[in-house]
## 1
Amino acid sequence: MKIAALAGGVGGAKLVDGLAQILPPEDLSIIVNTGDDFEHLGLFICPDLDTVCYTLAGLANGDTGWGRREETFNLLENLQKLGGPGWFQLGDKDAGTHLERTRRLNGGQILSQITAEFCRAWGVRQTIIPMTDQTVHTMVDTIEYGELAFQDYFVQRKCIPRVKGFRFDGIEFANPAPGVLEAINKADAVVICPSNPWVSIDTILRIPGVSPALSTKTVVAVSPIIGGRTVKGPAAKMFLELGLLPSALTVAEHYGDLLSGFILDNVDSDLADLFSIPTVFANIFMKTHEDRRNLAQDVLHLIRAL
Amino acid sequence: MKIAALAGGVGGAKLVDGLAQILPPEDLSIIVNTGDDFEHLGLFICPDLDTVCYTLAGLANGDTGWGRREETFNLLENLQKLGGPGWFQLGDKDAGTHLERTRRLNGGQILSQITAEFCRAWGVRQTIIPMTDQTVHTMVDTIEYGELAFQDYFVQRKCIPRVKGFRFDGIEFANPAPGVLEAINKADAVVICPSNPWVSIDTILRIPGVSPALSTKTVVAVSPIIGGRTVKGPAAKMFLELGLLPSALTVAEHYGDLLSGFILDNVDSDLADLFSIPTVFANIFMKTHEDRRNLAQDVLHLIRAL
């Protein structure tokens, strides 16, 4: 069974890792959000893309979910001593990725090609594709500060400002990266990972051509909301601030007609009757390596049943 | 006694360290070559300036003479794994310096100001000044490849190409950095460190205004050539390729009328009668911390005697 997964950062990477434990590598393609990519200290940084790549490469930090394992922070420590900005946790190994990516981008190589070559170097055999090779900036409209660049909202201001809405700057001119539509078209089903619907998945869905390609496909989503809360990140807080109940049901309604099936956490079993599409209950929390595989197994079961 | 020292990288930094062991910090200013500064991976790198700063900050690697002590190379290792260039030994701590310098330069701060602020952060109390805030590129004209940028000649090609001459690109438009002429004017004497005359010291001397300022001063030079060889670096090889005998005498002749006195190594005592200016014999090799101080002491003795 060929699967195309749409993923953001940490939560997405975990499910993708579970799918990778089951599927042959050639049957798994992952399309990753790049709306939170940003330039920092002259480096072109792709947080979601790196998290997915590091995870499948076995290089990710299991404790934080982002960054590299056995990482050092000697660069950042010296930079901060000299008065440089410390708000972004730039590890030494990670900085090597950003420097080489920036060098290649400045040399004219495109992000999807760079990502493919990095994956080859890291021994990742699944296909990881950035949603687009063009620049899309996720902008968070807030009550306190007006529109903020995503990393400003997310890292510098720690998701504290109250959200009014979102804008994906440049998305109307963005094309799907080479391989994105092909991955969707050849897939037997598309999995929307338990990533933030507003700032991770919507970005991918709004790339011109992606939603139409999905409309003919079996699409299942895994709820990023468990018992009204998120495991990590501001999704539940965003729902509330937008006047919506943070709930697995609200997530399913958000994706609407796109979905063929939905996976909720076991703790939300009381919501079962509220859904008009097939649902499955599972352990979405994914604490362990086995939890990832088990959730992926549940996702594939649902797909087979549809 | 107020001293202004002209310095390149490793050899210069060692003597400067010796002087710093003796003189009160406010009495020592160091004017450093920036002709070998270069951009690499988008980072603005100042090898000589960093070597002098790290040395006086007590942060230098005592074994190599350049780079940081207790350095890690995690960035470089990951960068190379991804196909990035490994010819420049970019340490993690060192990369923090370059990133912050580059950030500040891109923000409009000038190199001399950045250097002063870095020195303050590192607790360096002597005055370290880049020769200029403008861009000067030392170009090495070679038989095999024509003109090479200095780092290309020095690091990538390991000083193997045969030298025909040198050019300091941009030097005619360069001004001495703020503090350079002031440091020379207020100094009781100027010390030319045992650095490469062709590519470290000449660069400083050719900055418009520097040589005229030196002409009224007591200037002593320490030979970078010991028994016809250099401790490190290609100076002796360059003399030979330019048709000159690599010798302490040739160094003194190279600086000519500028000099009031000259320090040779003890092994060159047979050359004594060939000099027309006062000379002193000393241990120039500087293996230990004490050797540095002893040589500095010899330099100051000669200055007092002049």
## 2
Amino acid sequence: MIPSPFLLYLGRSADALGIKTSRGLAEFRREDCLGEFRHDDCPQTLGLPRLTMEEAAAKGARTLVLGIAGAGGRLPDELIADAALALEAGMNVAAGLHERLRDQPKLASLAAERGLELFDVRDPPPNLNVGKGIPRAGHRLLTVGTDCSVGKMYATLALTWALRERGVTADFRATGQTGILIAGGGVPVDAVIADFISGAIEQLAPARPDEGWDLIEGQGSLFHPSFAGVSLGLLHGAQPEALVLCHEPGRAHMRGIAGRSLPGLAECLERNLEAARLTSPEVRAVGICLNTSAMDREAALRLCARTEDHLNLPCTDPIAFGVEAIIDRTLCPAPSAFSTTASN
Amino acid sequence: MIPSPFLLYLGRSADALGIKTSRGLAEFRREDCLGEFRHDDCPQTLGLPRLTMEEAAAKGARTLVLGIAGAGGRLPDELIADAALALEAGMNVAAGLHERLRDQPKLASLAAERGLELFDVRDPPPNLNVGKGIPRAGHRLLTVGTDCSVGKMYATLALTWALRERGVTADFRATGQTGILIAGGGVPVDAVIADFISGAIEQLAPARPDEGWDLIEGQGSLFHPSFAGVSLGLLHGAQPEALVLCHEPGRAHMRGIAGRSLPGLAECLERNLEAARLTSPEVRAVGICLNTSAMDREAALRLCARTEDHLNLPCTDPIAFGVEAIIDRTLCPAPSAFSTTASN
């Protein structure tokens, strides 16, 4: 386990999606977050006290979390320099990038000298096997998306808690760095060797004999040309009984690819159902989650209602409006759910 | 480059598909293959002289190629022991498994002692980027399959040579261990980090300004629950203008998964075209390649003719009957090609 309390790193990030790991910790483990570190030109804040490395260490912060991410998971020089400052101030450092902290000689030697630790959250587990797609016991729900960073993790967490409030055993299965930091475990599926994508998810959510649910955090999108392979292997490995489609209304283009528009909800859902049937022939859609944080409440409610009518599925913003209707649909399948003939 | 001549390893393999790397070298680089190594209980042969490690080294073999593979790419103890014997006899050792030769202390120290080399063909290139799916110049053809090991590499090589015989510049782009050993280069796409599948293929077959063709070897199948993520990322990264569907008639079940049947040709082709359109909206199917090596010639010809009528696409066994009709269709698109309305 990574020692808390945490200092959350924002650096110079001007990209709201780029700090999603820091934001996730600030939202879901706020009691473990002492403050945020940002440079003077960083326009963002998580509403936590702004602290220098020394101030944070003096207040008792145990670990600097480099909770920012760009495509490719590189570790730029400035992050290395700031991580070194954290070590010099006496804090451990955690990151979830493809480039590992421990592979930076400067950081490795500083940590060794001072008896501190480097946590590379994106290390996949060893000894993975290839997936087999053999039917296995248990209830599993997977969130899928029209794009990256549309709220799949938030939706999955909200659904997990809502099931628990109904008295249903439910476990959040994290597949990305933020989810893993929040949950304290999981599989960073985009960091496994390509041959083992579906196998990693079969291992993350193995057969479960009880009546409980595994709620598996989706990644990427079948429609994202960078990451669709990850999304498809995850979908096959999850062998989900239920799919929830996540989307952020108003997004101008696919994350990281200017000019590429997002798929329609019906098309995206249909393609996911079609692909999921390879390992889960009876898979069904149980709801739509919209991230409406950029909309006013009335407009958001109207959009949810319209989407619900259009797709014949419960539609909600899981943070703003809860997920009760989706839980109802998950636990009690409706006969007239979304079908392949829904228009786009 | 891996020094030839080669000694090809068959071990104890009783599985014709399990020795496909050794067989590929025996077929396509026969002049570089001195002999085969097999244990007494191995029922298979490539028709090369059976040699012990010592005999092969004495005849001048420079490298033992561990050209066998099971799902997961593990390196069992017996392979390690046999690789050690090869080193002791004075040969280098090459393998294309996920588990690396160099990570075996015994092999690493033996190689170092004797000034020999270990070649891990499945090492992905460093510094890959994520794919972007941005339109790029050049003609690209990709082979896709109903399953693993159905002849995609053979078909791709045959198409490459046939294009060259027509005077068209054409390059084979290898994506698997066998293809890489034959071509002397390529990207082992199933061994890259999952986030970089499509990016690795964009790097393998970048924009080319000439009128030449890149012929990209496909991997796996969109219908294989172990590997579909690799197949989808490869498809998106390839951004193919032309697809060739490969299939082995009569296969009882998907490779490695008893009881799972293969998809129909029309369904498989349609799903590949649909997915390919994400990065290549004008993609078209140009032919079907059947591996009919287990059928008699007349039955094979009848099956090709029937398949051709059914799918309205040229259909051939690339090894038995050549690929001229597919080349015609590739270079001169027909207006009435396979469409989404073809029955299964």
## 3
Amino acid sequence: MSSTADSFKAAFRHHPSGVAVITLDSTTGPVALTASSVFSVSAEPPMLVFSVAKMASASQPLHESSDIVVHLISVDQIDLAKLCAQRGADRFAGDVWTWSRYETGEPFFDAPAVRLRCRVTERVEAGASTLIVGEVLDIYISDDADAQAPLVYHDREWHRLDDGSVL
Amino acid sequence: MSSTADSFKAAFRHHPSGVAVITLDSTTGPVALTASSVFSVSAEPPMLVFSVAKMASASQPLHESSDIVVHLISVDQIDLAKLCAQRGADRFAGDVWTWSRYETGEPFFDAPAVRLRCRVTERVEAGASTLIVGEVLDIYISDDADAQAPLVYHDREWHRLDDGSVL
């Protein structure tokens, strides 16, 4: 069939993804978004990419600031992923999901077991979204990262990977 | 910790992904690669992105040809994904994984339930890889696509999503 927005969305409902939360500063304070569109591009130099919809509230800050933090999200932080995907929610109220700042200033959430501080090196306009390419400057992996179950987003549902899902 | 290739790889071992197989023509016939780095970028116009390592055999063809097919892979086609990830294997011997061509010429595998014929609109060099941005021209979704279990790649293992993994 020819490609329409509907058939395109139907096709990608068959494509699972990992989940990430991205934080950065804006002119009005820290902002955060949830992305199911993050992948590693290159290990040497370490680079990653994700996309942000132009209509997302984080789009403009991502065009203005190059200092970002990418958190890889496990099942334990599913509610953080939902919070940062929710339009208009205050992600930094700090009552449940506490946050801190790097010495270099970038805001980050304390809970996720893996996070990567990045410098945006390229922005590529692509249809209704922008591809953000980042070089990774600093990596944090908590001691209990391996004990956390990976989270997968698929067709508007969330899944846990564990011994029961392995092939 | 500071970012090294090793810590970067360790970080992304915590990031699951869907699986895709990409086919296209080269000067020596059809080529195929498996990618765990595909995501949808924009629904209107329909666009997707993936990355290919510069040292991959499909890298040069992807710089020379703009007509590609992206197959989204289910558990039923796990062996096709493994075949297309295997260095030096003949992906198009056709003894198990039969293939065809669109009227417009692009080679594709018959088995996957979802495939998207694309025109490459942009190539972005990023470290040791190239980001390939494609506009989707044509979409195929088989009648039994919903019945096929989604496949996830995570930390060098393969997982199946089903009712048992849903949260």
## 4
Amino acid sequence: MGSNYSSRRSKLIRQLKNLGVDGLLISGLSNVRYLTGFTGDSTWLFVTASDTLMLSDTRYETQLEDECPGVGVRIRDARRSMNDVVSDVVRESGIERLGIESDHLTLSQFHALQSKTEAIEFIFTASAVEQLRQIKDKWELEQIRDAIRFAEKGIAVVRSMLRPDLSERQIRFILEEAMRSFGAGGTAFEPIVGVGPTGALPHAHAGLRLVSDSPALLIDWGAQTFSGYRSDLTRVFFTARPTRQMQQVYEVVLKAQQAAIQAIRPGVRCCEVDAVARNLIAEAGFGRYFGHGLGHGIGLDIHESARMSPSSEQVFEAGMVTTVEPGIYLPGKFGVRIEDDVLVTAGGYEVLTSVPREFADAVV
Amino acid sequence: MGSNYSSRRSKLIRQLKNLGVDGLLISGLSNVRYLTGFTGDSTWLFVTASDTLMLSDTRYETQLEDECPGVGVRIRDARRSMNDVVSDVVRESGIERLGIESDHLTLSQFHALQSKTEAIEFIFTASAVEQLRQIKDKWELEQIRDAIRFAEKGIAVVRSMLRPDLSERQIRFILEEAMRSFGAGGTAFEPIVGVGPTGALPHAHAGLRLVSDSPALLIDWGAQTFSGYRSDLTRVFFTARPTRQMQQVYEVVLKAQQAAIQAIRPGVRCCEVDAVARNLIAEAGFGRYFGHGLGHGIGLDIHESARMSPSSEQVFEAGMVTTVEPGIYLPGKFGVRIEDDVLVTAGGYEVLTSVPREFADAVV
């Protein structure tokens, strides 16, 4: 596949010392996939300097052989719990300090684990794998570019089929089927399709409102590759003559988005880029109508680190892929959000998405 | 909608004393939806004897008004964290002992919460809402019956369209689109479509294998209503003359499933029903090829309490809906699983699903 799971695990193993642990227990599903290529669930990864073991059950015995050749596997039957197996492998390995993923392990899981594994010390490692995942390798970038291509071909179909009597839901389904027909494994998330006031709800579900109910149609969508990588875009289309306010709001959002994108480069803090967009929107008098963060990383998950928000002290690095998605939402009227996917490069940034975004392009 | 969210919350409030708490913080997404009807995310529910507050952010301000009329809402802006708001409402309420959902809250979330909310005592309540959700009310049963109907109409379309050159993936997409065209909001989970050896992987992804590659085709699928309720079925179809072993395995699985279903009634332990099927499969010599639990509750989540496994001491009660899904998987050859959705009734059980399941029905 061109993806090198063992080199990713090597990077993690090189961090064990810095994390102050002899071993790591990886329970986050996307983290397990990132490190091994395994696409199932209910499976944890145990890593030490000398051992790599997938802890799973009989449902996944054959699938693990297929997807993770060369990786050790410990299969339990229906009578034993995951914690029983963790207890076994920890004891056998002789480690003393086990790192666990405190961003993924629930309180209940941790307490059950503690009660089975008394002799060792647990170290909370919040996001060791997430930090590796922030920087996309060449193969991952190819996957994200594919996910973008499926999404962009899909929206072109929708755009060509827009007519007054389509409902939000019908548009959602046309979009999903089009993306698949071009090769997507599925959607990156439930597409948001909102006409007029529905578009003013940043996370609305596509409902029964018709295109003819308002000139403004907001679509927030993305595709997922069969390899699990995602894209995330938003466009607003004007399906009838937009009001002056619609045009004004659109131009403000676009200006804010473009200025924020141009501020992206290695070394800049996420809150600084967020502020570029937020200040422009506030200066235009719409500050209270932009309540969410400016963007987020994408990859195997639709919301990854780094997050752009007023309080985010994270710093951009080359190889990160982030959405940039300012919005203005006028309750009961309409919403405008413009969202693109941007790669941080050594010299600054590259916009990976190419659906036209000028106001004139939005009028269909 | 016919659903009574406030009576569900009243049931929970009546349990505060038994749980040893003055208030509860509900952070599980499906639990919040169950208690309020809210369909978004990133939103927690704070409940005391006198207060009911949704803790959310500006993205959901209008949606909360629409979906949860009469419920108090506390909206934070992008500069404040969820824990800041929890800290506020806990202080204002004057409570001393706060119940948290230890099955949902991660270690990181809990530690952040603790650091913001020092004066109170936290009580771990693992599954208070999950226990309420086990017993489905009349409206919920209607939703599940709808989800089953969409799934059954969908599989009838697939069955009518089966032909040798279809791939697993094509079948998956035909099925998903058919379920939607009958009124489903989507799938209950990623449908499993496995020809021959793929069907021997209990949780395989639909791939590129063709129907013509083996007589045995396993499909595990379900629909989801727009209200969020799910169905879950599995059938095996023989698209060419099945081998004698295929027929033998099929008959063993069906016998095990039917015997297990007939053992379901209020008061019986889940492990006892599991044992009925497991013993029959073991007696037929296939014990080591059935590695997973016999079934699980369904509802707003695809896997709910109660779970049927050899170690499950949970007891069936009238109003529960469970899958019954024994399987035999012969690695590299084929798999047979037969799965139906069963309601526990006062007098015993009612099988809610009606897709034919005799061996003769399986031969298409």
